[in-house]
Amino acid sequence: MYASREDIGYDFGDDSKVGSKPIKPNPNIDGGWAWMIVLSSFLVHILIMGSQMALGILNMEWLEEFNQSRGLTAWVSSLSMGITLIVGPFIGLFISMCGCRTTAIIGGILNALGWILSAYAANVHYLFLTFGVTAGIGSGMVYLPAVVMVGQYFHKRRALAQGLSTTGTGFGAFLMTALLKYLCTEFGWRNAMFIQGAISLNLCVCGALMRPLSPKDLREKYMVRSDSEENRAKALPHSTETIKSNGVPSEEPEKKEEAANEEVLGSVQHTEIGGKSGSGRSMYGLRILKTVSQLTVTVRKGFALWYSSYFGAASLFTNRVFVAFVIWALFAYSSFVIPFIHLPEIVKQYNLSRQDNVFPLTSIIAIVHIFGKVILGIISDLPCISTWNVFLMANFTLVTCILTLPLMQTYIGLAVVCALIGFSSGYFSLMPVVTEDLVGTKHLANAYGIIICANGISALFGPPFAGWIYDITEKYDFSFYIAGLLYMVGIIFLLIQPCIQKKQPREKSTEEAQV
Questions:
Q1: Of all helices (H) and strands (E), which one includes residue 5?
Q2: Which structural domain range is residue 118 located in?
C-alpha cells in the first residue's frame, strides 16, 4: 500500500549494523543489471540526441510550410537542443526528490506529448512552445537520469560504460535521419511527428529500466571508492577530497537529520502496530499517513541537498576548479555543433557538393565520433592513465581542428579534419566521469546538471552567432576562428585552476612554519 524503500530512495534500516558485518560487493556494480542501465542510456541517446541531430529534415519541411525566414525557423531546433541541456539544474532537483526512474518516466511522457502536439502546429511560434519548450524539457528529464544512473552503477569501468551508452548519439543520428526522411516522404511531416511521438513513448520503458540502487549499496560503493581516492588524487589534483574541503556538505548534519526523521517515522510505525486491533479504515488511514511521512522526508532531504549544492554555504560554486569546468562548458559545445550546422554551406561554397553527396562530411564526424567515445573510454579506464589528462588532450585536439578547418579547401583535407573532430569530441563520454571525480557520486546529478546547462547555453547561442558573423563578413572563417579562440579560453581556465589548487596548501604550510 505504501512506497518501498528503494522507490523512495531513503533507508529506514539500522545503519549501525553495516559496520559490524563484512562488506559484500553488490554484483550489480560493474556487472549484472549495470549493463541493462547502459542499454537504457544507449536507447535514450538514440531517441533524444539522435532525433535532435536529425532535425534538419524537419527544418526543411517547416521552411516550406510556414514560409518564414531561415533564422526564425532555426530557433525551433535550437530551443529544443538548448532547453534539453539548460534545464539540467532543475532536473537535478527532481532527481533528488523523486529519483531517476520517476523523473525519466515523466520526461518520456512529456517528450512524446511535445512531438504529438507539434503535429498540429499552425505557425512557427506554436512550435516554439510545443516542440522547443515542451519536448525540450521532456528530453532533459530523461537525458540527465540516463547519465547519472550509469555513474551510480559503475566504479571500475565508468569511462567505458559512459562511452558505450553515449554512442547512441551517433547511431541515432543515422537511424533517425533515415526514419524521419522516410516518414516525411510517405506520410508528410505532420504525421511523421505524430509517429515519432509514439516512438518516443519508449523513453518511459528506458526509464523503467533505471532500477535504483539501495542506499546500502551506494554506501558500499563509497567505501570501495575511498580506498582508491588517494591514488586518484595524485593523477587528478582536484579530486573529491579537495572538493570536500572547499564546501561539499559534511555527513554529520545529515546523520542528525536522518536520526530525527527515523524517530518521526518510527513513531508512526509504532502507532500502526499498536492499532492493529482497530478497524480496517483506521489501518488504511495510518498507512496513508506513513506513506505521506516517508515522501515528506524524501522531498525535504532532496530539496536540502539540491539547495545546499547551488545556494547554500556548501555550494558547489565555492570550488574554483568546478567553476573553471563550468566556464569551459560554456564555450565547448558550440565548437562541436557549429560544424554540423554550417558544413553543408562551406561545402557548397567550395564547389564540393558532388563529393559530399557521396559521403557527407557530417556523416564522417558522426561515424568517427562513435569510435572516439569507446576508444577514449577504454584508454581512460587503464590503471596507468589519468582520465583528466585524456580529457585535456582530446580538448586540445578538437580546438586545433576547429581553428584549422577554414584553411582546408579540398574534400580530402576537410574529411581528415572532420574525422579528427569526430574522434576528439569523443571526450563527451568522459565528462560525467570527470564530474564524478570532482564531486562524488552523491552530488553527480546536481553538478552534471550545471555542466550540461552551460553546454545548453553554448548550443543555443553558438550556431546563431556563427550565422550572424557570416552575415557581416560573408565568410564562415571568422565564425570558426572566434569559436576556437573562445574554446581555448575555456581550456586555459581548466589548466590554471589546478595549479592554483596545488599552490594553496604549500602557501598555507609556509605561513604555519613562520608562525
A1: helix 5-8
A2: 27-226
> Which residues are CB-neighbours of 244 under 8 A, at least 6 positions away?
250, 440
CA separation for the pair 441, 371 (Å, rounded): 26
Closest CA to 190 of 352, 91, 58, 366: 58
Q: What size, in residues, is the chain?
A: 515
The verdict on 212 and 353 lying in the same domain is no
d(CA 172, CA 167): 9
Grid coordinates of 233: 588524487
Same-domain check for residues 329 and 222:
no
Identify the domain boundary among 226, 253, 288. 226
- Could you read off the pLDDT tens digit of each residue along the chain, which spans 515 residues? 334 333 333 333 444 444 444 455 666 687 788 899 999 999 999 999 888 877 877 887 888 888 887 768 878 888 888 888 888 878 877 887 888 899 999 999 999 999 999 999 999 999 999 999 999 999 999 998 998 898 888 887 777 888 888 888 878 877 888 888 899 989 999 999 999 999 999 999 999 999 888 766 555 555 555 444 444 444 444 444 444 434 444 444 444 445 545 544 455 455 445 544 455 566 766 777 767 676 676 666 666 665 665 555 456 777 778 888 888 888 887 777 777 666 766 777 788 877 777 777 777 887 888 888 888 888 888 888 888 889 999 999 999 988 888 888 888 988 999 899 889 988 888 888 888 888 777 777 778 878 888 888 887 777 677 767 766 777 777 778 888 888 888 888 888 766 545 544 444 444 444 44
What's the number of domains the chain is made of?
A: 2
Q: Are residues 329 and 215 in the same domain?
A: no
Q: Which of 226, 250, 270 is the last residue of a domain?
A: 226
Residue 123 CB contacts under 8 Å (≥ 6 apart), including other chains: 66
Domain assignment present for 390:
yes
Q: Does some domain include residue 57?
A: yes
In a domain, 257, yes or no: no
Q: What is the CATH number of the domain that holds 352?
A: 1.20.1250.20
Residues 57 and 200 in one domain: yes
Grid coordinates belonging to 83: 532547453
Distance CA 218, CA 99 (A): 14
213 and 69 in a common domain: yes
Inter-residue contact 382 to 474 (CB < 8 Å): no
pTM beyond cutoff 0.70: no
What is the DSSP track for 410-464?
Answer: SHHHHHHHHHHHHHHGGGGGGHHHHHHHHH-STTHHHHHHHHHHHHHHHHHHHHH
